[in-house]
Design goal:
- Pathway: Lipid metabolism; fatty acid beta-oxidation.
- The protein has 2 domains: about 220 residues, 2-enoyl-CoA Hydratase, Chain A, domain 1 (Alpha-Beta Complex); about 50 residues, Lyase 2-enoyl-coa Hydratase, Chain  A, domain 2 (Orthogonal Bundle).
- The protein is built from 11 helices and 11 strands.
Length: about 290
């Protein structure tokens, strides 16, 4: 385990438990409630990760043993910003603030490498916004989810209502959960498609399972994995033919990489292929 202090912030601890694999832990005790500064740091950390060519997979988790996140910290939310008194200008300022927050919470989706989120204990509100923006979600058997926002007088606005209907297989279930804010557990989350694996145990066990998968991903061609994530995201939001056109152009460029030959050679020789890191944009800074 190597600490990545170059990437860590006050409320986000980053380490490298395996080569090319990062573990990002939320460290805002007592309940990992997100306020604006916290999700701004979350955004910053993933933007930094996106410029690091050595990173091939990321696991997102909580550092707290009993829970993932209680959601948004609403303490002082009504007085967070000194918006204009004029209703029109205030509406514009509020829209800009929400858009900024949406971008921050969706940082894992923008990250070019796969992000696996490992959830346990309480995972309320903003936790689902974040989880639905990740590529893979593993849940400990003790997890308790809730789309909590209606209980505090608003519609979930940072990603859940945009992404969860495309993640889950049941339109009815998503709407019921969003309208009622009732808790649901790992088994129901698995049935609806929010999570892909339930791990017996708690925080340590689900993080270990996520790290195992991230380590496996990190052994693959980074060009192939990066392309797969981009094409899958495009597929979610476009028609089949549009996505076929997109991947044809994408692979027209990416198939020129020597990674394809290295992967085939490794398969024929029955030994792991060795792939170079992704390139780094010359102007990018960690």
């Amino acid at each position: 385990m190597t600490d990545r202090n170059d990437l860590s912030t006050r409320w986000m601890k980053v380490s490298e438990p395996e080569p090319h694999v990062l573990l990002v832990e939320i460290v805002r005790a007592p309940v990992n409630a997100f306020h604006e500064a916290c999700w701004t740091e979350f955004d910053l950390v993933f933007d930094k990760i996106s410029t690091d060519p050595s990173v091939r997979a990321v696991v997102l988790a909580s550092s707290l043993p009993k829970l993932f996140s209680a959601g948004i910290d609403f303490t002082g939310m009504d007085s967070t910003h000194a918006f204009d008194a004029d209703p029109g200008r205030r509406a514009q300022q509020t829209r800009q603030w929400i858009a900024h927050s949406q971008r921050a919470v969706g940082a894992a989706e923008r990250c070019p490498v796969p992000v696996i989120v490992a959830v346990h204990g309480v995972a309320y509100g903003l936790a689902i916004d974040i989880a639905s923006a990740c590529d893979v979600c593993y849940a400990a058997a003790d997890v308790r989810f809730s789309v909590k926002e209606v209980d505090i007088g608003l519609a979930a606005g940072l990603g859940t209502l945009a992404r969860l209907p495309k993640v889950a297989g049941s339109r009815s279930a998503v709407r019921e959960l969003a309208f009622t804010a009732r808790e649901f557990g790992a088994a129901e989350a698995l049935r609806m498609g929010l999570v892909s694996r339930i791990v017996s145990g708690g925080r340590d066990e689900v993080v270990a399972a996520a790290l195992d998968t991230a380590t496996l991903i990190a052994q693959k061609s980074p060009i192939a994995v990066l392309g797969t994530k981009r094409v899958l995201l495009h597929s979610r939001d476009h028609t089949v033919q549009s996505n076929l056109n997109y991947v044809a152009v994408w692979n027209g460029a990416m198939l020129q990489s020597p990674d394809k030959s290295a992967a085939l050679k490794g398969a024929l020789e029955r030994k792991p292929a060795i792939f170079p890191n992704l390139g780094k944009f010359p102007g990018a800074k960690l």
